[in-house]
Amino acid sequence: MAGHEQHYIMPRAQFDKPVKLLIVVSPYYKDIADNMVAGAVAEIEAAGGTYDVIQVPGALEIPTAIGISDRASNFDGYVALGCVIRGETTHYDTVCNDSSRAIQLLGLQGLCIGNGILTVENRAQAEVRADPKDQNKGGGAAAAALHLIALGRKWGAQTKGVGFKARSDAIILAETSNGPKNA
């Protein structure tokens, strides 16, 4: 069965300092969402992290809530959880593509986000993927966020320049003998 192929799972991320995540979940399909949250919570707790959970109406609101939280709070990372089941209209494609694209854009801005928004053909596929004892996609999304946080902390701790960022000691302000030059 294709859904049960073996794949490599990275070792759990480890942290020297506490880590705090925000789980943003759309409970549109409440039983599926609850299973995904349970998987995410177990993974965060196993890594020694703490978390808060907020709910939003649908998958399209998940990236917006993450963006608001990033501007107004102090979370290290985010876990996006939801489920979109294909229906009879093209709305499915819009919700899947736009929520995924928005999460990717937030990630490219530096946010550590594990994307656990399921995009499935039917409820049976969603149930298997959400079940913490089966595919545990909620736990996988939390693990992804934790790994990104660990990576950010690793590189954030470096004292040398990274990429195109100038080293802080390379920035010199023009001064006159009487102090900084006024323009």
Automatic annotation (TrEMBL):
EC class of the enzyme, as a word: transferase
Q: Which named protein is this?
A: 6,7-dimethyl-8-ribityllumazine synthase
PANTHER family for this protein: 6,7-DIMETHYL-8-RIBITYLLUMAZINE SYNTHASE, 6,7-DIMETHYL-8-RIBITYLLUMAZINE SYNTHASE DMRL SYNTHASE LUMAZINE SYNTHASE
Q: Which reaction does it catalyse?
A: (2S)-2-hydroxy-3-oxobutyl phosphate + 5-amino-6-(D-ribitylamino)uracil = 6,7-dimethyl-8-(1-D-ribityl)lumazine + phosphate + 2 H2O + H(+)
Q: What does this protein do?
A: Catalyzes the formation of 6,7-dimethyl-8-ribityllumazine by condensation of 5-amino-6-(D-ribitylamino)uracil with 3,4-dihydroxy-2-butanone 4-phosphate. This is the penultimate step in the biosynthesis of riboflavin.
Protein family (similarity comment): Belongs to the DMRL synthase family.
Its EC number is 2.5.1.78
Q: Which organism is it from?
A: Parasedimentitalea maritima
Alphabetized CDD domains for the sequence: Lumazine_synthase-I
Give the residues the record marks as binding (2S)-2-hydroxy-3-oxobutyl phosphate.
Answer: 88-89, 129
Could you tell me which pathway this protein works in? Cofactor biosynthesis; riboflavin biosynthesis; riboflavin from 2-hydroxy-3-oxobutyl phosphate and 5-amino-6-(D-ribitylamino)uracil: step 1/2
Record-annotated residues binding 5-amino-6-(D-ribitylamino)uracil?
Answer: 28, 59-61, 83-85, 115
Keywords, A to Z? Riboflavin biosynthesis, Transferase
Annotated catalytic residues: 91 (proton donor)
Which GO molecular function annotations are given, in alphabetical order? Answer: 6,7-dimethyl-8-ribityllumazine synthase activity
